[in-house]
Structures are given as C-alpha cells and as structure tokens.
C-alpha cells in the first residue's frame, strides 16, 4: 500500500493506492500520527486507487475508525469499487464506518 | 559485547612446536585456558571431534594434510559449518588470503604473529560464535514451542475418526482440509451433532494469521462451549458469540464466520454468516454462491445477524472455505487469485474428477496455480448429503 496526504483546513484526505493487507500493518502508525494534526475535524480515506483489501486491511480501517472517534474526528471512506467494495460489503463494514459513494 | 573467554576451547594446529607454544602463550594471557594441539590437518580433524573446540587456529603449510584441506573437510560437515577457523598465513599476499577464504576460513592472522592482533581476532570470532549459538538456541526453542502449539491447535479440529462417525450417523460425506500459512493460524472449523436429525457446521477465520490469530482460535474454542447450539437459531447463536468476542478482542481484530444447521427431517439448511466468503451450494447438479454478507464478529456490540434458509435435499452439497482459497495467487499473469466468482467453476471441475469427494482434486488445482508458502491460512470443508 502507498498513500498520499492532502491537508485542507479542517480536513485530512488520505489517498490509498495498491493493496491494503497484512504486511501494511507497520505503516498504520504513520497514518494515526496524521490524526494528531491540530484542528482536524474530518478524515477522508479515498479508495479510488485501492485494488485489494484483505481481512487485516479491513482491521486497519476499524482501528482508524476507533482512533478518529476517540479524537472526535469524522472518518469517511470514499470511492470504494471492484473487489475492495465487494470485500467491504461482504463484511458489512458500512455498519460501523461511514462510506460514501 | 565482551564475553568471558575462559569457557572457550581453542585448537591450535601447526607442525612447528615453537609456533604452537608461542600461540598458546599469547591466548593464555588473554584468559583462554582450554587449549589443545595438533601437528597436521589429519591430526587436527581428529582433535576437532574429540576436543570439540570453539575456534581453530590453523597453519596453512603442514605435512600429511595442509590447513586448507583440513578447513575444506570441516566445512563439508554440517556440524562444523559455523566453527570459526583462523588461518595463520606466512605470506601476506592477496592470493594466499583469497585461498584461505575460499577454503572456508573465517579470518586470518599474518605471520609474524602480533599478540594484540591475534587476541583481538580470536575474541572477535568467539563473540560472533556465541551470538550465533545464542540465536540458534533461541530459534530451536521457539521451533519446539511452536510445534507443541501447532499440535494443540490441530486438537481443536475434528479428528478424522470423529468426522467419519458423524458422516455415517447423518448419512453425509465429509471432507476437510486445514492448513496454516505459518506454524500457527487463525482458522477454525468444526461440526457439532445437535440431535438425531440436526447437525451444525461452523467455520471461523480470524483476521490476520500467525500467533495472534491462533490465540484467538483458542479463545473462540473456550467461548463456544458457553453457547449451547441446540435451541437457538444460527443468527442468535452468532450474535452471542459476537458479543463475547467483542469483549475480548482488541480493536482491529475480528473474525468472519459461517454457522449453519442442517435439518435432515425438513431437508433444510439454515445459516447465519458474519462476512464469510460466499459458500457454494449444489442442488441437482447446479452450483451457486450463497449470500453470506454480515458484520464480522467482534467488531461491534450492535451487530445483528440474519437467518437464511434453503432446501438441501439428499444429493445436495455445501462447500465452505476461508478466503485464502480466493485470495492467494501464483507467479505470472495467468495465476491470479481465483476470486469469489471463480469458486463454482473450480468446484465443478473438481466434481468432474471426483463427484463424491471433490476436495482432493479441487486442492490439486488450487495448489497448481498458487505460490507456497500460502499467504494466509486455508480451510476448506466439503459437506454432501448422500443420495
């Protein structure tokens, strides 16, 4: 997995690309650090370029949801498609995380 | 890292008595007291076996067998692959030094031997050896422990005899495959006789794999006994399990699960699913994927599960599996993951090879296109009602 970050006032946008999987767990720490940015209210995960997610990857989304909730930051996952969308729908992660088309 | 050299054993191999004595004197001053001697390579090989040195100080030119040959022979033996061998070379030439390394030498000291350099190099090699031995011991211990843990994990699964008995009691054909991607894994499955005409099947896959996921399968095993299956619909049973797992699992850890009850009197399979990969059901030769969407276990206390029912008459079959089957891939563009939609086709091909027990041919086809070791744990369960 690779990611780019866009900061815009109260929003942080995380653009994920490639595969989000077990081996990416060590990078999660870097992403969580972003949430420490002062004044952040919204955390947007753009999954347009994400091609695959496994169960460990879904676990990372759940951890991010928890971390944002603790900081009163609204997390939104956007532009899910293909196999990634299918995996997330199967696991009904939309019941826990806000997903936008 | 400074280690005590007193416990280390050094073998000095040199045909010149004066050299042997002066080398011994130098290293004795550095605290090395366990020293033995040999006069040529052949003698040296024997002493390696009887004296069991931690390091060999080896001369190059000797009668009977020279140092290079002795070193080569030692390196051919697995047990001496890592034994530090320090050559003493008379010629300070590049070519000679290259020959020492090519023969398997760890390092060399040029003659005339300087005491300070000699002791420093001996110490360096012995410290390296100690680190290596410590690491090898650690590795050995972890391997032994993992082996025991693996046996414990396998004991959570139904034994072949038990499977056979259940299959015959309910007139089923049952076949299962369980494989972890490392020593331990996060998959779990079992079959539970409920009464004279009902039998339940459970397949659970914890996110991730390895030790953490395996610990969760042990947690699960303890929890399952707390929730009787006899008198609740599958959805309710999964909901109970979800709450219990939510209490023990840290955020980010969860499990997918399929739990189904087959009723032989009504020919009905009733199941609830928590995001398990779509099972395949086969009725009258037609295979299709079952809906198995549902919030994963252990992620939310508010999770609600649905019961789904379908007819599974005699001759019908059900194929359950963990996501490794559809996510693992092999080398090259033609060996991409099978994917969810590829499973019925894979099963159809396997059933053409062995209609009653397609699991063997199915796995053969899977492994033919998949790189090993697997990236995730694989469980596959074939359940068929006899015609």
Automatic annotation (TrEMBL), chain A:
Gene3D superfamilies: STAS domain. PANTHER family: ANTI-SIGMA FACTOR ANTAGONIST TM_1081-RELATED-RELATED (PTHR33495). Pfam families: STAS. Residues 1-101 form the STAS domain. This is STAS domain-containing protein.
TrEMBL record, chain B:
Transmembrane segments: none annotated. The keyword Hydrolase applies. The modification 4-aspartylphosphate is found at residue 59. It holds the Pfam family Response_reg. Coiled coil: none annotated. Residues 9-126 form the Response regulatory domain. Keywords: Hydrolase, Phosphoprotein. SMART domains: PP2C_SIG, REC. This is Fused response regulator/phosphatase. It comes from Azospirillum isscasi.
